[in-house]
Amino acid sequence: MSFSREDCEYTKFNIENHKMEFSADEDGILISIPFAENTPQCIKDRLNDIIFHEMNKYLEPLECMSMPCCLRLNARMQIQYSNNESDTHYYLSMVITDIPEIGSGTWIDKDIDISSETVGFQSEFISYCQYQVNKTLFPFRLEKARI
Fold it and tell me: Which residues does 116 contact at the CB level (< 8 Å), separation at least 6?
């Protein structure tokens, strides 16, 4: 048995995160952006590919696993701003939890550094993340630009 690509679409899961989150420490700032309706399709497709691959990888030794509708998904696009200004990293990140077949407290956790993706994907990802951050932090600028 294996999961189909359709089974593994991120919208089939119980989505855990719905808001942008910011955290900071001595190394820099991490911004986490949730997936939304207006997320570019190429980014959603890449997330679905990651979920499909990881779900089937974990299914192999188990032979049986809960369907995505019974699992929790925390999927986000992340920007890691380092204190070194030239050291900014972008990630696609997902965590799937509440998998009873694997055991309590166990989850599927995968981060993809987008520097390993195509230049076109990187450009789309970075543009979308920057737009979402600017929309949240500087909404008056975006309104002014439309006038």
Answer: none
pTM for the complete prediction? 0.85
Is the Cβ–Cβ distance between 49 and 105 less than 8 Å?
Answer: no
Local structure of 76: helix, strand or coil? strand
The answer to whether 65 touches 56, Cβ cutoff 8 Å, is: no
Closest CA to 130 of 76, 74, 79, 75: 79
Under 8 Å CB-to-CB from 20, ≥6 apart: which residues? 31, 32, 33, 34, 132, 133, 136
- In order along its 147 residues, the chain shows pLDDT tens digits of 788 999 999 999 988 888 999 999 988 999 999 999 999 999 999 999 999 999 888 877 777 777 888 888 999 999 999 877 678 899 999 999 876 555 555 578 999 999 999 999 999 999 999 999 999 988 876 555 554
For residue 16, give the 3-state DSSP assignment.
Answer: coil
